[in-house]
Amino acid sequence: MEKLKGKKIVTMILFLMCIFLYSVINIKKELPVLKETMENLDFTTGFNNQIHSLESAINDNVAGKYYFIDAYGYMQRLLGKNEESNFEVVKDTEGKLHYTYFTDKPNDTHEVAKRVSNLKKAVEGDGTKVIYVLPPEKYIKGHTKFSTGIPYHMANEAADLFVEHLDDYGIPCLDLREGLKTSGLDMSEVFYITDHHWKIETAFWAASCFDKWMNETFGENMDPEGFYADDNNYNRITYKEISLGSMGRKTGRYYAGVDDFTLIYPKFETMYTYVNTIQPDLKYTGRFEEALMATPIIRQSSDPFDADMYMSYLYGNPAFSHIENMNREDGLNICFIKDSFAVPFAAFTSLRCHTVDMIDPRYFEEDYVETLRKGKYDYVILMVSPQNLVEEFFPFGEK
Prior knowledge:
- The chain is of the alpha/beta class.
- It folds into 2 domains: about 1-65; about 100-395, no CATH class.
- The protein is built from 13 helices and 13 strands.
- It has helices spanning about 1-40, 45-60, 65-80, 110-125, 155-170, 175-180, 200-220, 250, 255, 290, 295-300, 340-350, 370-375, and strands at about 85, 90, 95-100, 130-135, 175, 235-245, 260-265, 270-275, 285, 320-325, 330-340, 355-360, 380-385.
- It has an 8-stranded mixed beta sheet, with helices on both faces.
- A hairpin with a 5-residue loop joins strand 2 and strand 3.
- The protein is globular and about 90 Å long.
- The termini are far apart.
C-alpha cells in the first residue's frame, strides 16, 4: 500500500514539474510578444478589443502550439470524426475540409444585390460598366457529398438567389459554377483539401473563361487568339505537401493531410509594376513572377504552418492595390471589388489588361464612388464568392 502511495506521489511530482517547466518555457516565449502587444494597445477602440488582442497574441504564441493541433487532429482522424470545433470545420466524403454551419434556409441576398445596383447607377454615367464574376463554391452541386448529420450552409442556394437578383437589376454576371459543369476539369481537383480557396490551376482556367465571356458579351478583344489561355505558354512548378490552408491550420497536418501547391507563371516576356497599401512606398517592378509573386514565401517555407501559399500571388489582400502591365498599354483598365478568390484570378487577368486595381472591402476605408470615378475604369468587376454574399463585403450603395 505504501509502495502504491509512493508511486502516486512521484507521478504527481513529475506531472507538476512538467507543468511548471512548460509554464516557464511559455512565459519566456510569450513575454516579448506580450510586451510588444501591450505597447501597441489602443484603448480608444474599446476595452474588449484590447483584451481580444492580448488573448490572440497569447494563443498564437503558445509553445508547441502546432504539435498540439497536429496531435488533436490525428486523434479525431483515428476516431473517424468528420467534424471539428463544433462543426466549424467538416470533412466531406472525399476527405476535403469545408467551413459550414447549421441553417434551414439560404441567406437573403436581395440587399447585397441592391447595393451592387446602386453602385452601378453611381458610376455608369462615367462610361464604366459594372459586372459580376461569381466564383464556384467548394461544395460543388452534384459532386460533393457529406456524411449523414453534417450540416450544409446552403451557400449555393444563396448564390442562385443572388444571380436572379442581379438579372432583375440588369447586371451582367459570369457564373463560374455553370462553367465548371462543361469545363472538363476533374471536380475532385478544383479546390484544395485544407483550404476554402480554389486551386491556382482553377483560377487560371477561370481567367480564360472570363476573357472569352468578355469578348462574347461586350465585344472586347482581350485574347482573340487564345495565346494567354494556352498552357504551353506557362511554367508550372508543383511543390509537394507544402501547403496548409485556413482549415488545415485549425485541424493540423494529420486530420486531412497537406496540400500540394502549383505555381503558374508565363514563359513569355512580361513587364509589370505593382504597388499596394501594405507597403505604399515600395514599387515592385519586373517580370510577372518578379512583380506579382511573393516567391520568398515558398522558398523560405519548410513547414506547412509557416506561410499561406495561396497568398504568394499579389502578396495577399491589401486594402487597395494597383497592377500595371507595361506590355499592354492598349488593354482594358479594370477594378475588382473582391474577396480572396480574386487574387490569383486578377493576376492572370492582368496579362490581358493594361491596369488592374483591386479593392478589398474588409479593409478599404475610402469612398467607393469617388475612387471608382477617379480611376476612370472600363469595367468595375465585383468578385465575391458564394459564402461571402453578406453585407460586410458590400459596404457601399446603401440607400
